[in-house]
Backbone:
């Protein structure tokens, strides 16, 4: 069965409630116009606003074409963890997805592979679909260690995956080379396909058919101008979009770049 393409907007630490609601409404009306024109949207769309805007954005997206996601979660469910947000709380506010192990958290907040795996498990326990980010730094790429780094990040997840097939299949992996994030320098299609194909083979080896259903999206300076060539790649199942998700016109143009065949 073909995997459904997925486009995720990661707004990071940008926007207050009013701007978040306005952006959501612009995206929703753009998507409705596309449905009116062609009968459907070609992909699943997820918006990940800052935590403070989740409730307000959910008021707008509830029951619509768009799903809501958090940008991070605690590995714990509740308790004395000041400033943290549990997966159940994200569900409570309307989230169906959560980004886990973004490189800005791995590097800025000391999240290692083991903690990322525990956070993924916490997301599954809360009934959320984790979007787990992996990717090498520029230094690691220059040392020829890209595949080794990505393999270690992926392998760390397997012991924490739940046993149920349908839950495992709902995992999303995002390949985000750290040097491409927010830099305006996206990875070349051949670099992206090399890593995505490599991860697909590992997923198939380790999980059999379940590994076939897991979506692998690309993130790192995706723009309307390069989205088409990235989304056309065999093992790319969508995109995780940062900067270009903050303007509805840019984000909608990226959604339009999803190939028709999906
Ligand atoms: P970018 O960010 O699209 O601005 O490069 C991607 C991300 O950090 O998820």
Residues:
């Amino acid at each position: 069965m073909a995997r459904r393409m997925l486009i995720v907007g990661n707004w990071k630490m940008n926007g207050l409630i009013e701007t978040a609601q306005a952006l959501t409404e612009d995206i929703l009306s753009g998507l409705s116009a596309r449905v009116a024109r062609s009968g459907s949207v070609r992909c699943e769309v997820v918006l990940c606003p800052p935590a403070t805007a989740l409730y307000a954005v959910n008021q707008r997206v509830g029951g619509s074409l768009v799903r809501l996601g958090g940008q991070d979660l605690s590995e714990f469910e509740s308790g004395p963890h000041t400033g943290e947000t549990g997966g159940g709380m994200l569900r409570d506010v309307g989230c169906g997805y959560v980004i886990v192990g973004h490189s800005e958290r791995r590097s800025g907040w000391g999240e290692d592979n083991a903690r990322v795996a525990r956070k993924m498990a916490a997301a599954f326990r809360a009934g959320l679909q984790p979007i787990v980010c992996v990717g090498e730094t520029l230094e690691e790429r220059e040392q020829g260690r890209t595949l080794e780094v990505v393999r270690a990040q992926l392998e760390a997840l397997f012991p924490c995956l739940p046993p149920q097939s349908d839950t495992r299949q709902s995992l999303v992996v995002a390949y985000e080379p750290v040097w491409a994030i927010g830099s305006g320098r996206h990875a070349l299609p051949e670099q992206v396909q090399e890593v995505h194909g490599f991860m697909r083979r590992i997923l198939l080896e380790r999980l059999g058919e379940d590994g076939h259903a897991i979506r692998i999206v690309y993130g790192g300076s995706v723009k309307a101008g390069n989205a088409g060539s990235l989304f056309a790649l065999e093992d790319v199942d969508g995109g995780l979009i940062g900067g270009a998700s903050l303007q509805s016109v840019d984000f909608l143009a990226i959604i339009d770049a999803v190939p028709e065949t999906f």
Summary: The beta strands are 6-10, 44-48, 66-70, 95-100, 129-134, 172-175, 215-219, 238-241. The longest strand covers residues 95-100.
